[in-house]
């Protein structure tokens, strides 16, 4: 009787975990954190995933753990689709009140790619349910529910989202042909022609729109492979891309001053390809591990093993496609897919380990206590960082620096924290602290913004030679930007180097303006 009541309790916790996971994928931004879009989603997902996995680990079922998990799969899909519908409703209201976003709709995400990925996964779930269900009413509801999701997916202006949509349409067509047309040869030929025409249409559309973006991505991949050639086996380490890529970009433009890529280059924090990113950071071993993440479920499917994996396999398609053109593992919806695919395997292995129920309860309780403590400490420090940043922008510089100083030990390896700390110190006029912290930041990140801030700090410290080096590096990292040239103009003005000052002034006056702004106009007026 006690075991039965415990099972009921763990099933309730399991359902709570499912609901929290689905909510986390669409969680609205919380502005108490510095990363207001990512962190709330991350914390909710981790809490939901812990409830989900721990409950499965403790539930004792007669039918087996995989079958038990399979019972909840449709519930996960339906809750996720409902949350996607709510996201679409929010975006429609936002469009009605404020109008369309020029760069594509992004809803509760930090950019349109995250929304497109999550909606693409929702579309894959709808198609999976359509294939599974035999109820006519259920199919009608799924078709109706797919309309707003598809509409908003198109409004994201995501090319990868469009490719995912094409794949999902082909999967649905293949299913309909198999179910209703009895595998006739004519319909198979028709399907193949549809595949060819749809593929050509998508390729032409994707290559024609956003040509500047396509050129920029090509350039980023070229420079990324140049980095890989130097360290293909071991990579550059966990922050390898952030610490080395922009230096590689600066080197390219220093050696190729009139490159066709000059006007498209900007600060790059990600190569827009998960495989390339992992290869640069962790070498060939990391790349093979990521490939196996996608390949292993497919092998099990082809071997006709793993019922749960077979049911969740379609969900891997959007994650795989976005891995070639974006950074899907930045978003919780991708981790939800991996959780659904791999949790049966992990749990089957854990169930084979002979541990008594009481021992499992004790071990889970201990792990959960440690997990809650760690998460609470992390949330507290992230909140304090957000408060320090707000104090700095409001002009309470001493209070802000005091908070940053107390948090430095916890975030000492976090490049975003170090940059934020250096900026706060610079705004307060504490140049010594700003210089020390921005130099420490250089161990983890070398980017345009860091070089520009370093140049400004050195300029105020009268370290003109070092300031000139930083501004020059920033200029070659992003040749299209005007701010580094303004910094160089100030250095040459303060050092009475009229020849170089005049040459910079002429360069600013004749420089191509990619995006008109008040800052550009101000720089042009100032540096005459």
| CA(first)-CA(last) distance | 86 Å
Secondary-structure element order, as H and E? Answer: HHHHHHHHHHHHHHHHHHHHHH
Global shape: globular
SS field, number of helical segments: 22
Low-confidence stretches: none
Query: What's the gyration radius in Å?
Result: 27 Å
Count of all domains: 2
Annotation, overall tally of beta strands: 0
Please state the average pLDDT score.
86
Please outline the major beta sheet.
Answer: none
What fraction strand?
under 5%
Percent in helix: over 70%
Q: Structural class given helices, strands, pairing?
A: mainly alpha
Structure, explained:
This protein is mostly helical. The chain has 2 domains: 256 residues, no CATH class; 150 residues, Alpha Horseshoe (Serine Threonine Protein Phosphatase 5, Tetratricopeptide repeat). Helix content is 76%, strand content 0%. The longest helix is centred in the C-terminal third of the chain and has 37 residues.
